[in-house]
Amino acid sequence: MDAVSDTVEDTAPPRRKLPRAARRVQLIEATIETIGARGIARTTMGDVAKQAGLSHGLVNFHFQTKDNLLHETLLYLADEFRDNWMEAVAVADPYPAAQLEALLRADFRPEVCTPARLSAWCAFWGEAGSRPLYQQMCGEHDVAYDQQIESLCQSLITAGAYPHISARAARVLRTCSEGVWLDLMMPEPPYDLTEGLTTLMACAQALFPLHFTVLGRIDPAG
Amino acid sequence: MDAVSDTVEDTAPPRRKLPRAARRVQLIEATIETIGARGIARTTMGDVAKQAGLSHGLVNFHFQTKDNLLHETLLYLADEFRDNWMEAVAVADPYPAAQLEALLRADFRPEVCTPARLSAWCAFWGEAGSRPLYQQMCGEHDVAYDQQIESLCQSLITAGAYPHISARAARVLRTCSEGVWLDLMMPEPPYDLTEGLTTLMACAQALFPLHFTVLGRIDPAG
DNA sequence: ATTTTCTGATTGAACTGTCAATCAAAATGA
DNA sequence: TCATTTTGATTGACAGTTCAATCAGAAAAT
């Protein structure tokens, strides 16, 4: 039926009549790329259309307004990030240290940790202060992430008799992770992804020395 | 004739013929407020002028272009933040734990930690990914801050025979501080300034338990 | 034949940057 | 002390540009 759908993007012009959902995703991906390259302030509908190799009328056809396009793009990113860490936790070994390590590593997987995605996410974050809608979405993302971390921290605190407050330990880890993200967002980051992860593990080690080293969790099996 | 000049605007309207430098600062402050309220993307020269209670032609008279206005605003913020933490370190007690605590607390002083300033700084940060100039300025700010922290961390590591790498410990503290900032930027932050600082101190305690508690440094005098 | 997707020209609004005119204050001269 | 000139800060109207959104119609798809 749809022999077209194979080479949807990159160089070859992705000719007409892609299924609705696929076209929307293509345009959202183009939006992420454009925001990553030009920032939100200077991103126009024309830029997005050009990036996708389509006409700008089509962007309005699928998303009605620019505000809506941005909103849906943020939604897409937030869902992607959430799915990513949730799945990482789900497939991790079933003990707290392994799950916490999986959670912390998830945001740095190459699939989600691309320059354009980091940059776009940060751009939305920067605008969040003045846009209640973005604020709410970024906030909700953080809350869910934070709760998951806190629950794991609580398990570790109990297991290791650490003197920490779980909410605070969780916050230290989350903020550290977000800060490393900001560093890596720069086109010429001061350190690479591996060193970023090691920094996070150093943070986990400082909090939970019985369960973590700078290389990651200490396996309970020995 | 000139009965006008007194209260043309609301709060503190320095009417006509202000010296050049003062007027520029007034316009930059108006820019910070506007960016904080509307974000960079939707801030216009007209908005800034209105915020300052002046005509929009005057903004161009003093700053030529919008890009230049934004650039100078970022410069102003970066200088202010740097001066703030440098002075805090300079007046702190002359031992590493006290200086580190002063450094960490500096960014959360009410003078610099206002909603508009946090929000504006974050907005610039969000755009930094796509603007080499912003990138460089934000980067330089971070580098200087990081070097100062690292030097203090190194002193503590030596003093306490901690197993850390100074660069990584410094990075953990800096990223944690930046992450807390991001949290506090939200109009309805998930926790207050005091709790933010306590979180930072908890991070310092995890790294340097001989020198810090969640309340701050442990005074060497006892 | 009908519906859905897509294009590119067009429109109208908003914004930036310019400029001539205005005006307050400082400098100068009486 | 008071009038005159000079300076440069300030205004508001304007020109030119950019951009979001619309729309009529073309091109697939069903």
Residues in helices of chain A, as a percent range: 55-70%
SSE order of chain A, one letter for each helix or strand: HHHHHHHHHEE
What quaternary form is this?
homodimer
The computed structural class of chain A is mainly alpha
Mean pLDDT of chain A: 91
Report how far the terminal alpha carbons of chain A are from each other. 55 Å
Beta content of chain A comes to under 5%
Strand order of the largest sheet of chain A: 1-2
The number of helical elements of chain A comes to 9
Topology of this structure?
The structure is a homodimer of 222-residue chains.
Chain A: H1 20-38, H2 45-52, H3 56-63, H4 66-91, H5 96-106, H6 115-128, H7 132-160, H8 166-185, H9 193-207, E1 212-213, E2 216-217
Antiparallel strand pairs in A: 1-2
Helix pairs in contact in A: 1-2, 1-4, 1-6, 2-3, 4-5, 4-7, 5-7, 6-7, 6-8, 7-8, 8-9
Chain B binds a DNA duplex (30 and 30 nucleotides) through helix 3.
